[in-house]
Amino acid sequence: MVAVEFVRRHMQGSVPLARVFWWDMLLVGTLINLVAGGAALAAHVAGAPFWLAALIFLLPLPLNLLLILSVWRSTGKEAGGWSALARAASLVWLALMFVV
User: Fold this and answer.
1) Separation of alpha carbons 76 and 31, rounded Å
2) Residue 19 carries which DSSP code?
3) Tens of pLDDT along 47-83?
4) Taking a C-beta distance cutoff of 8 angstroms, is the pair 65, 11 a contact?
5) How far is CA 47 from CA 27, 42, 43, 52, in A?
6) pTM given for the model
7) According to DSSP H, which parts of 13-82 are helical?
8) 65 Cβ partners below 8 Å, 6+ apart?
């Protein structure tokens, strides 16, 4: 139930922008992507089929999309002046997570 509540709150944009941007996306999301990238590389080096390494690499994609959506929805509810910067930075982050 905790995961369902996490997804629901993020989909609604009810998580504060500072938390979803700094903690959920930049810290936790980046760590998850680095672990998945490392595991995919290790699987490839160990001789696993390419499709398996690619699958491992792409496993965080649904979370990445949820976090981007959450940042965008949270910016609509924030009165701060950094909303546009947070939106742009989230898109740059998503692109970087495909490279890492």
Assistant:
1) 26
2) I
3) 999 999 999 999 999 999 999 999 999 998 776 788 8
4) no
5) 31, 9, 6, 10
6) 0.90
7) 17-18, 30-45, 50-58, 61-75
8) 94
